[in-house]
Every structure is written in C-alpha cells, then in structure tokens.
Design brief:
single chain; 122 residues; alpha+beta; 3 helices
C-alpha cells in the first residue's frame, strides 16, 4: 500500500497501516478499534511467545514510514508517529498479568495504537 494521497487518512487506511506494520511480528489481535464521526481510535496487538524488543517496534515504525507516517519521538520504551491528524504509538512489552491466562502461551505483545480524526472518502 502506498502513502495516502489525501491530507488525512481514513479509519480503514490507518487500520491497514497498523496491521501491515506488524506483519511477521506476532499473531494479530484487533483490540476494539472503533470509529465515529470525528474522533477515531485504532488499536491492535501482535502477540508473541517472547517479549518483543524496541528493535521490533522500530521495524514496525519503519514500515509505517513507508506508508506516509513520520516518526515524532523515538524513546527508550515507545515510538510515536504522526500522519495528518493521526497520532500513533508502538509499545513492546510483556502481556499484562491480568490477560496472561487469556493470551497463553503468548508472553509478549507489541501494541500498535492510533488516535485521530476520521476522514470520509467521497
């Protein structure tokens, strides 16, 4: 998928971008993404048997850059990006204790989340 030629990305474009960014980095899990007029949120997890590293988060960020996103901040524990009105965060870490039984045998998760303004296409 090429960068969006539009000034803003639609909910579906952001969902596709985040899904593609995590390819090969674990099992995809949609985490209650929703959209409504105005504000939107897209959140997905990549579940893996090992806790993902920041290197893997940076790989996902690089993939998002190829889809028109710009790296905003690259911190020790998270990468944040922007695309138009959208702000995304990529955070690797262990599966939260309260979800370990539900997501077993997975031990780690790469969280890919974006919030922004929904754009309607004609």
């Amino acid at each position: 998928m090429c960068p969006s030629p539009h000034p803003g990305k639609s909910w579906a474009e952001v969902t596709a971008d985040l899904r593609a960014a995590g390819d090969g980095l674990g099992t995809y899990k949609d985490m209650n993404s929703h959209h409504s007029p105005g504000a939107c949120m897209v959140s997905s997890w990549r579940l893996s048997r090992q806790v993902p590293t920041m290197e893997q988060a940076r790989l996902a960020a690089d993939r998002l850059r190829r889809h028109g996103w710009k790296v905003d901040k690259n911190k020790a524990e998270t990468v944040s990006l922007t695309s138009g009105d959208w702000i995304a965060a990529l955070v690797p870490g262990p599966v939260p204790d309260e979800l370990r039984a539900e997501f077993a045998p997975h031990e780690g998760v790469l969280i890919l989340t974006a919030m922004g303004k929904c754009v309607r296409r004609p």
